[in-house]
Amino acid sequence: MPDFRALPSVDQALTSDWGRPLVARHGRSAVAGALRATLEEMRLAIRAGGDGAALAAELPALLSGRLAALSRRRLRPVLNLTGTVLHTNLGRALLAETAVAAAVEAMVSPLALEFDLATGGRGERDDHLRGTICSLTGAADATVVNNNAAAVLIALNTLGQGREVIVSRGELIEIGGAFRLPDIMARAGVRLVEVGTTNRTHPRDYEGAIGPDTGLILKVHPSNYRIEGFTAAVPAQRLAAIARAGGVPLLNDLGAGSLVDLSRQGLQPEPTVAEALAEGADLVTFSGDKLLGGPQAGFIAGRADLIAAINRNPLKRALRLDKIRIAALEATLALYRDPDRLAAALPVLRLLSRPAAEIAGQAARLLPEVAAALVPMGYAVGLCACRSQVGSGALPVDTLDSAGLRITGPGGDAPDRLAAWLRDRPVPVIGRIHDGALILDLRCLDSDADLIATLTAP
Questions:
Q1: Which pTM value belongs to this model?
Q2: Which fold has domain 79-89+351-456?
Q3: What is the dihedral sign for C-alpha 360, 366, 370, 372?
Q4: Rounded alpha-carbon distances, angstroms, from residue 131 to 162, 273, 275
Q5: Which CATH class is domain 97-345?
Q6: Rounded distance, CA 292 to CA 268, Å?
């Protein structure tokens, strides 16, 4: 018969010398729940032939570990050494210090979010962002929702519900998280009219598709792919003229939505919002947490009458931003008023414009420290040149010269084993596996000490 007498009761464990500190740290209810689960597992082990006394001796350590794991936050900071600056799965843009300070202030203080301080009456939350967006882009008006997918959704629903929307076949995109443009259009209540072919669309294709039931023309920036070779697309300016002649608005979805010329930072240029509006788009949609460098948001800028219609849509309330993101966006947009110092103040642009030589110097400094931590585990660490990318659908085929550490080990699964170990560090380290090695691209590592500390932590 199994002998369970070596295991303590729940009350005995809770009041023991090792149990009382756990109760003080985690609370009686949490400790009792974890304790019951652990004791049940031990009873099963005893039934299978396990030694009750040995298992009882392990109980304090097992329970302490289980409680530590339960209390650990699931949303944890990590070191992004993937080489992808705007990594969707790692939270995209890092916020500027002024944006962080503004968000904290919004968390702890009442705000004039929808209160007009001049009149004492009700205000509009979009007013905190509208003026700056309009001055930076030349738009007549602007509004904001919780992400760019929502911006496209509400614009389509407002302008085209129950009507036709014309899109080039080459722009019917799918992006991460199963966002498929045809599905969004269906949810918006519009009827998709495809024109052209996958690789070639001509002005006559749009002109022939416009009819009495056309609600708008949609142009989508190919933010996460490129079609090359035998291709043709209608330039935005020509498409705007076709839309005007047909009496329908043109919606240009830029996706990443840069507000500045990226070539000033040594990057390949992306179309800016101001350029898209100057080319004749009636509305432009773009993200807040990509190249703009702020928190998650979706902007719609353009004609005042169309923006007013969107703001009257009942969906607007469901998709609106909270005070914390509005505060962070206001502070982020304020940085664009000083373009000469923008790259130094905005983390996204600073990381994207880091010189490869600077990153290589950082790799050389870190090599002995990282090797000291990993060589005893059987790994070899060396310097390597590598290529970073912008990420989040921006500049999808353009990469940046970078540098990092290339780590190899015995066995074909060595990179996967090391990657798993790094993910279990106090501050998880996320690299990328390439060609039989784990690469730690250092472009996004601000502090050498952060990496060293998490590698050497017990």
A1: 0.89
A2: Aspartate Aminotransferase, domain 1 (3.90.1150)
A3: positive
A4: 32, 15, 18
A5: alpha beta
A6: 15
